[in-house]
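Example 3.2
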Amino acid sequence: MSGAQYLTNQFLIAMPGLEDPNFFHSVTYICEHNDEGALGLVINRPLDMQLGEILQHIKVEQATPETRQIQVYLGGPVQQDRGFVLHEPLGEWDATLRVTDRIGITSSMDILEAIAAQQGPERLLVTLGYAGWGAGQLEQEMADNAWLSGPAHPDILFDTPDEERWKAAAASLGVDMDLLSGEAGHA
C-alpha cells in the first residue's frame, strides 16, 4: 500500500449500515495510519463525564469551574481507562503524537495540568480510550464499505456540536447521510 492511501488526518465516517455499537454513527479522527495499523479517536461519543472527574481522580486540584466542565468523550473501545487529549496547536508536551503541523494527540499529565490552569491548548477534545486497527484491518473495512473517509476539518473536530458531527463530516465530503440511511425514502 502506498503512503498516499493512508488515512492519517482524515475523518472515518461510519456508514449508516455499520452496526458495531462502538462505531454506530461515529466519526473517528485518524491520528496515525501506516502499514502496521491505525489509531484514531471517536469524536462524537460524549460520556456522562466531565474533565473535573478525571482531574479529581489524578489529584489535579487547581481547575477552574470552566475547565472542570469540559466534556469527555469515549475515544474508542481500546484502553478506556486512559485519557487522550486531541489538541490544536501542537505545543510542547511530554508525550505527543504529532498528526499535522497544528494538531497532536497527547497522553501525558502535563497537558491536563496546563488545561486545569487554563494554560492548555487553544482547542481541545478529551477522550478516554481510542480506536485501533491491526495491519490491513482498516483497509479491509474500507474495501467492505463500512466507512467513508475524507480530509478532517478542525472546525468539525473542535467546534461543531457532538450530535451534528456525523452528518457534518459526511456533508464536508458532499454526502447527505439522510439519503444514505435505510430510514429515508420508504413509501
